[in-house]
Amino acid sequence: MKSALNLRNVVVALVVVGLVLLPVYSALTGKVFILTMFTRIVILALAAASLNLIMGYGGMMSFGHAAYLGIGGYAVGILAFEGVGSGFIQWPVALIASALFALVIGALSLRTRGVYFIMITLAFGQMAYYIATSLARYGADDGLTIYKRSNFGSLVDLSNRTQFYYVCLACLLGGIYLIWRIVNSRFGLVVQGVRSNEQRMQAIGFHANRYRLVCFVISGTICGLAGALFANNTDFVSPAVMYWTRSGELMVMVILGGMGTLFGPVIGAIVFLVLEELLSQFTEYWAMIMGPLLLLIVLFARGGIMGLLGRFSRG
Amino acid sequence: MLVVVEQLLNGLQFGLLLFLLAAGLTLVFGIMDFVNLAHGSLYMMGAYFAATFVAWTNNFILGAVMALGATLLLGILVEFVALRHLYGRDHLDHVLATFGLILFFNDAVRLIWGPAGLALPLPGWLTVPVQILPGVYYPAYRLSIIVVALLVAALLYIVVMRTRIGMLIRAGASNREMIGALGINIKLLFTLVFGLGAALAGLAGLMQAPILTVQIGMGENILILAFVIIVIGGIGSIRGAFMAAIFVGMIDTLGRAFLPDLLRKVLSSTAASTAAPALSSMLIYLLMAIVLVVRPEGLFPAAKR
Questions:
Q1: Which residues are registered as beta bridge partners of B158?
Q2: pLDDT digits over A145-185, tens only?
Q3: C-alpha distances in Å from residue B180, one per residue of B86, B103, B163, B176
Q4: B103-151 per-position pLDDT tens digit
């Protein structure tokens, strides 16, 4: 057993403390921009963490994960549009809708493995995108403006920037705690066992696909929550939220941070989105740098940032 | 009746175009075990090259041939610089690396050609309608796409099934290590196959260009259709890709053309006009879901290794 005080844990602790204290820094320096930027980062980190649950621990390479961001977002947006403003209704609906979508997509996609699975989840994600573009009543291509954020009565005011940030951060940390509990439970161990050797798990008597499917649904549900937060953050939801490049970006965050590590996706999201911000300040054509950078990361930095830190602390 | 014939031909033309794209993808996957998301970027580059070269030379055919050559070279270059280091890696690595390439190509195109789309005008002799049946006219250009794509499909069949290089390609697909051990330069073979795939994608792009505008991201939606085709047809199977491409092209085109009218017969007209666009864009995904349930390995799976 490694000591608790290795480089990886120190970095993770610093990141968490930094995220918790961020609004204080923003208030002291008057940089509101930093708070809005990190609200977005924290939300997408939650989405990446949910993807990591199936990708890193379950071995299911879903390329359609942005669909849940859209479904969660549209659940909030459509209910707000139809006059249901209460978050106590909006958010559960967002979660249930995402779970149902994951159940159907998962049951179909899990009939396949490997590359097929990547392609099929990609195609189903695009299907969700096209459905959203044809919702004429809810803005179709142009998207839907949300005039009032989810209303939680006197409990919390989401229109307050700082309160909203802490709600998002609480969701992120709660989500990671949940994933940690899942991964270390009997259920999680079976899922990881199936990732390593499906035939052996089947032979011991586990119904591999049932475990996979449940894991897939949990992941989709968590990402649906991220979608509800995302829509509240932008006060807007449009099909573009679930365009397939977003799914690709979520995958990049997971890999960049370190697949199959608890905090890897969070660090990946922070590094990816901050890098994107810095590069886009430097040049309009930031993707021309980001693209080759990705290629280099794939070629030379396997295991992501967490992997590098781990190697570093082992000496 | 007239409309039905025209839409059937449109479906065939779209399907054949999809086949050119899917064939390259499935060749590269079947032989090199490589997932190439950037295939759609090569399709886009084919269209941009064509628009540029046709404007330079003022000659449609010459410009198209030059564009084809340029896409082939670009494909070989990309393979040589980046992708050949990724063979044998995890599929996820392929997905990420080629996702990076897509980001790169999209912004590179924006930098070079600007954010606005380009138009690729047709020469006069290709714009006239041709009488294919008594009283039925069809645009000459769409007809020539069908002819060219069928010729390429036939050529591809002959090359893969009847020539020495095709034999090597098939041997590479069934056992890479073995043909390497037999003294075949497998690196060169892979580069060649990748170039061939790139040229096919480029051909599809430049032929589609006069019908749609040449724009950034044009390769992405059609790439996903190509994935659906490969899944339906069975990965690595060119025959499967051909059948599935025609099938998907037909269903997509006919669905968009006739589904609204069909629905109007069953539903009220307002309900039909809201449901029809959603349903017709979902149609091929529903088809894919059905195929997956019935035959998860695709309709025409390549022979097991």
A1: none
A2: 998 898 888 888 888 889 999 999 999 999 999 999 999 99
A3: 18, 34, 19, 6
A4: 999 999 999 998 888 888 888 788 888 887 777 788 889 899 999 999 9
B172-211 pLDDT, tens per residue?
Answer: 877 878 888 888 888 888 899 999 999 999 999 999 999 8
Task: Say yes or no: B92 contacts chain A, CB-CB below 8 A.
Answer: yes
CA dist., res. A133 & res. A239, Å (int): 6
Per the listing, tokens 């749609």 go with B212
pLDDT, tens digit only, all 305 positions of chain B: 778 888 899 999 999 999 999 998 888 887 888 888 899 999 999 999 999 999 999 899 999 999 999 999 999 999 998 888 888 788 888 888 999 999 999 999 999 998 888 888 888 788 888 887 777 788 889 899 999 999 999 999 898 889 998 888 888 877 878 888 888 888 888 899 999 999 999 999 999 999 888 988 888 888 888 988 988 888 778 888 999 999 999 999 998 888 888 888 877 777 777 777 777 778 888 888 888 878 877 888 765 44
Interface of B with A in 110-169 (CB under 8 A): 110-111
Q: Does B51 touch chain A (CB under 8 A)?
A: no
Residue holding tokens 């998002």?
A168
Which of A59, A45, A48 lies closest to A216 in space, CA to CA? A59
User: Do the Cβ atoms of A90 and B4 come closer than 8 Å?
Assistant: no
Answer whether residue A2 is part of any domain. no
Distance CA B275, CA B264 (A): 10
Instruction: Give how far the C-alpha of residue B187 lies from the chain's centroid of Cα atoms, to the nearest Å.
Output: 25
CATH number of the domain that residue A18 is part of: 1.10.3470
Residue with tokens 């992997």: A307
Domain count, chain A: 1
Q: Which residue of B has its CA nearest to A61?
A: B92
Q: At what angle do helices A7-29 and A161-183 cross, to 10 degrees?
A: 170
Minimal Cα distance from A254: which residue of B? Answer: B96
The beta-strand segments (E) located in chain A are 144-145, 236-237
In a domain, A172, yes or no: yes
Q: Which residue of A119, A251, A287 is in closest CB contact with B103?
A: A287
Asked if B59 and B232 count as a contact pair (C-beta separation under 8 A), the reply is: no
In a domain, A1, yes or no: no
Query: Which domain covers residue A141, as residue numbers?
Result: 7-314
d(CA B123, CA A143): 39
Residues near A80 by beta carbon (within 8 Å), at least 6 away in sequence: A90, A146, A147, A148, A150
A286: left (phi over 0), alpha (psi -120 to 50) or beta: alpha
Asked if residue A238 belongs to a domain, the reply is yes
Region of poorest pLDDT, from A66-70, A87-91, A279-283: A279-283
Q: What is the pLDDT of residue A3?
A: 61
- If we measure between CA atoms, which residue out of A191, A219, A198, A212 comes closest to residue A110? A212
Which is nearest to A91 in space by CA: A232, A215, A219, A240?
Answer: A232
Inspect the interface and report whether the beta carbons of A116 and B82 lie closer than 8 Å. Answer: no
Which helix H or strand E contains B131, and what residues bound it? Answer: strand B129-133
Domain range annotation of chain B: 2-216
Q: What's the angle, vertex CA B287, arms to CA B248 and CA B220, rounded to 5?
A: 55
- In 3D space, the residue among A127, A62, A137 whose CA is nearest the CA of residue B95 turns out to be A62
The C-alpha atoms of residue B201 and residue A48 are separated, in whole angstroms, by: 32
CB-based contact, A300 to chain B, within 8 Å: no
